Amino acid sequence: MESTARTQTPTNDEQSNVTYTIGELAREFDITLRSIRFYEDQGLLSPTRVGTTRIFSRRDRGRLSLICRAKRLGFSLKITKTFLDLYESGNHQVDQMRFVLDKAKERIKVLEQQRVDLEQTLKELHAITAEVSARLGTGPSA
Predict the structure, then answer these.
(1) What angle, rounded to 10 degrees, do the helices at 58-72 and 77-88 form?
(2) What total of structural domains would you count in the chain?
(3) CB 86 within 8 A of CB 99
(4) Which domain holds residue 62?
(5) CATH number of 42's domain
(6) Which end of the chain has the smaller Cβ count within 10 Å, N or C?
(7) What is the chain's pLDDT, residue by residue, as a tens digit (142 residues)?
């Protein structure tokens, strides 16, 4: 089933009727159809169905955008699902912002430690290559 045309900026009423196929979303977010189906199986997306065809709404597209962003930032699906579920709750904005703030701080701490570890590993590898190169008489190479 083909989606509603999006060449012009739709009005609010038209925006609520915009739909997407699984293929359109896969192309837009550069992910596989299987990934989208997996997110659906995990309860992160809930497209309507016409027969066996999945019809995704603007809400589903927005959720998929957040899922992809959370993945890029290194958040687990469990954390992503919790974040998306908070949006469905009554006091969603404050709860969501607090949750994101806490998780972002945790993620920053982990990434900063990984950076320190990576820098130490690189330093050791450079020392090893310099030592081995010197023994071989080839000089260091990057």
Answers:
(1) 140
(2) 2
(3) yes
(4) 17-73
(5) 1.10.1660.10
(6) C
(7) 444 444 444 555 456 689 999 999 999 999 999 999 999 999 999 999 999 999 999 999 999 999 999 999 999 999 999 888 887 766 667 888 888 899 999 999 999 999 999 999 999 999 999 999 999 987 655 5
